[in-house]
Write a structure and sequence with these properties.
Oligomer: single chain
Radius of gyration: 15 Å
Mean pLDDT: 92
CATH class: Mainly Beta
Number of strands: 8
Shape: globular
Largest sheet: 8 strands, mixed
CATH superfamily: Hypothetical protein
Helix content: 10-25%
Number of helices: 4
Length: about 170
């Protein structure tokens, strides 16, 4: 039985987009040598008045509905596991070609990247057999959750054919 404690901190709306098959990539300034992790929701962005401006117009209602994760005291609900299938480097000037694969605005992505090249993480996301309410250790990008999570009976969010189509598109 495989278990995991490593998690990636990410905006809850983005996690839900990944977990519902609406998004399949993360755009970062850095690559990763951590190839598997739980998706751990963060909320600080949702407390800013203008956070909705970071998301494409078509996704704003979705983001409003999914801005905050389910919470139990200091524990947040963790529902998804992700595997990095590939990391592709793209110049920031070419990032607009990926708009169909994420929910952020082009301006948000450009602002985040600055002059850095984009490291596009292509993720295969799975739904956990059973969601868990967990705490995490401190960590800017990655952290560890308070208890090991079993990776039994993972259900891929996208079918193999849907995922292959995304790989070819990117």
């Amino acid at each position: 039985m495989e278990t995991i404690r490593k998690c990636l901190n990410e905006w809850n709306a983005t996690i839900e987009a990944l977990g519902q098959g609406k998004q399949s990539i993360l755009i970062r300034k850095y690559g990763t040598n951590v190839k598997e992790f739980l998706l751990y929701p963060t909320v600080s962005y949702a407390l800013q008045d203008d956070y909705l401006n970071s998301f494409q117009d078509d996704w704003r209602d979705f983001v409003k509905e999914n801005a905050l994760p389910n919470k139990d005291d200091s524990k947040f609900e963790v529902k998804y596991f992700a595997r990095v299938e590939n990391v592709v480097e793209k110049p920031s000037s070419r990032i607009g070609a990926l708009n169909d694969y994420h929910i952020w605005t082009r301006d948000h992505v450009k602002s985040y990247l600055g002059n850095s090249k984009a490291q596009v993480w292509i993720l295969r996301v799975y739904e956990l057999d059973e969601p868990k309410f967990l705490e995490r250790t401190r960590g800017m990008r990655y952290a560890n959750v308070s208890e090991e999570v079993k990776l039994d009976n993972l259900k891929p969010v996208l079918s193999d054919a849907e995922f292959e189509k995304i790989l070819k598109g990117i």
